[in-house]
Specification:
This protein is of the alpha/beta class. The chain folds into 2 domains: 187 residues, FAD/NAD(P)-binding domain (3-Layer(bba) Sandwich), CATH 3.50.50; 115 residues, FAD/NAD(P)-binding domain, CATH 3.50.50.60. The protein contains 6 helices and 22 strands. Helix 1 runs parallel beside helix 3, helix 1 runs parallel beside helix 6 and helix 4 crosses helix 5. The protein is elongated and about 70 Å long. It binds flavin-adenine dinucleotide.
């Protein structure tokens, strides 16, 4: 198959990558947007599509999935080529300054510049021990649609943001909600924890899962107090295990870009140590870095405008105003 040829290849279709696709289109650059997940949206779509986000400029509150849909819509007039379900595997630099990216499905993209918006890399949920048999049979790791929990007796396991947010968002939807956490300190936003404590959710600290039971699907869960070993049987039919996720930079680690831990080092233009290879969003590292969607949007704009100059040295970094006025 002939390689796809584009000006800019964007690796990662999370919020930073999607916004970069808009910006590249606005600058007249053709793009390919490569993501190992089957849907665009990165962490936002995969991990908290139903959660309200309060700190994206211009939206006092917006659900994760809606933000992603709007980002996709914003980029759409410029027709980015989506290569979803494709993990970027190899990066080869050519003498003329261009690159070839090969995906794990052997799709090749010839590109004048590269933008890595790989976030936390490819991510998979941390499994609940000895519960494999119930995966998809009442046990889930993400709540993609709150409606799937309507009128259910829900047990949420975990003490992070996802656990607290799902517990709060399911109030009024699930018929009962219990949240267990193995410690008494939560790793969630303070505001969410205090809302949780004031909610109708039953919160059990120092509590862990001993056993899930049910003929084919989850019917009850035995939990225990990890200080006293005292046990209790909870009659639940849905278990949400929000134990965090393992992330891995995967193939990006073998590329020649300079990496610090799990992050790619960039300069003020968002360029890596390889001229023509830029990065933006959660994956970048520099002094004072803050990992937020709004920061990723800004970095994406900086990266694309500097990539435009790399592609055409006569171009200007400043793109002009989109309002055209
Ligand atoms: C529970 C939770 C709540 C959060 N709440 C907020 C909030 O309220 N406000 C806020 O600003 N931020 C929040 N964040 C953080 C926010 O989600 C991230 O800052 C944001 O998603 C980063 O966007 P990104 O595009 O840089 O990366 P990501 O969203 O991580 O997307 C990166 C994409 O790159 C893909 N990828 C990685 N490696 C490859 C490869 N080799 N080939 C192909 N694809 C690859 C991944 O599959 C992924 O889709 C939250 C995070 C979590 C987990």
């Amino acid at each position: 198959m002939d390689p796809l040829e584009v000006d800019l290849s964007i690796i990662g279709a999370g919020p930073a990558g999607l916004y970069a696709a808009y910006y590249a289109g606005f600058r007249g650059l053709s793009t390919a947007l490569i993501d190992s997940l089957p849907e665009p949206g990165g962490q936002v779509a995969a991990l908290y599509p139903e959660k309200l986000i309060f700190d994206v400029a211009g939206f006092p509150a917006i659900k994760g999935q809606e933000l992603i849909e709007r980002c996709v819509q914003q980029a759409a007039p410029y027709h980015p080529r989506y290569l979803l379900g494709n993990r970027a595997e190899d990066l080869t630099a050519h003498d003329d300054g261009s690159f070839t990216i090969r995906t794990h499905r052997d799709v090749e993209v010839r590109t004048k510049a590269v933008l890595i918006t790989g976030g936390i890399g490819t991510f998979t949920p941390r499994p609940l021990p000895d519960a494999e048999a119930y995966e998809g049979q009442g046990l889930v790791y993400f709540v993609r649609e709150l409606e799937t929990m309507r009128d259910r007796e829900v047990l949420i396991v975990g003490g992070g943001d996802s656990a607290c947010d799902w517990a709060l968002n399911l109030e009024g939807i699930a018929s009962s909600i219990t949240l267990i956490h193995r410690r008494d300190r939560f790793r969630a936003h303070e505001d969410s924890v205090s809302k949780l404590m004031d909610s109708s959710v039953r919160v059990m600290t120092f509590t862990e899962v001993a056993r899930i039971e049910g003929r084919d699907v989850v019917e009850r869960v035995t939990v225990f107090d990890n200080r006293s070993e005292e046990r209790e049987i909870l009659e639940v039919n849905k278990v949400v295990a929000a134990l965090g996720f393992k992330s891995d930079l995967g193939p990006l680690k073998s590329w020649d870009v300079k990496i610090d831990g799990r992050h790619v080092l960039v300069d003020t233009r968002m360029q890596t140590n390889i001229p023509g290879v830029f990065a933006a969003g959660d994956i970048t590292e520099y002094e004072g870095k803050v990992r937020l969607i709004s920061v990723g949007f800004g970095e994406a704009a900086t990266a694309v405008n500097n990539a435009a100059v790399h592609i055409d040295p006569d171009a200007r970094v400043f793109p002009g105003h989109s309002s055209g006025g």
